[in-house]
Amino acid sequence: MTITSLLPRFVRRLPIAALALGLAALAGCGFHLRGPQALAFSTAHVAVSQYAELGMALRREIELSGTTRIMEDPNAAEVRLQILANERTREILSLTSAGKVREYELEQHVRFRLVDRENKELIPATNLAVRREYTFSDEQILGKEQEEALLYHDMEADLVRQIMWRLGTWKGEVPVDAPTPEEPVLEPAAAITDNGKVP
Question: What is the pTM of this model?
């Protein structure tokens, strides 16, 4: 057993006052807890429906940056965030001895780019993808459908965070290097058991 594996248990046993002192010390060293992502542009247009879950989440995060306002008119925005693809897939991972589905793998893939008013690419077309696995049971169909919906919601939140990080890395100078279509950015899979816990 390593020191790293013991750390979470040790931290949980620390008194609240000690944790507060530790956080204060980290702040004094220049460490800050993650907050809203500051952006280098003052206005932005999000080219995806505001009624879609992805569109709503992106608009919310951009507004929370405190530096950028959302413009519904693309011609009035300094930059345009274009969602070129947003796809979800579900594949069978394994079967039981009776030939029934035991595990599914979910994947959501988003391709986006950032352009200016003249349609010049500021962030080239970028592929992002996240995957999750979960066990399936015919005897718990309703519960598994709800679990799948929650997993997709979590996956989309991960993708929004990745997009916001990319937007935050652009500082108005040169385009950000992006992964090629053959090499998407992947989140590690998180297997979910029947009781909803990660093993």
Answer: 0.67
- Tokens at residue 31, please? 């460490």
SS3 state of residue 167: helix
Report whether 185 contacts 177 (CB < 8 A): no
Asked if residues 86 and 110 have their Cβ atoms less than 8 Å apart, the reply is: yes
| Domain locations along the chain | 1-33, 34-192
69-70/101-116 β-pairing:
unpaired
pLDDT along the chain (199 residues), means of 10: 43 42 46 66 94 95 95 95 96 87 92 95 96 85 86 95 95 56 46 47
What CATH architecture does domain 34-192 belong to? 2-Layer Sandwich (3.30)
Q: With the C-alpha atoms ordered 141, 144, 150, 153, is the resulting torsion angle positive or negative? A: negative
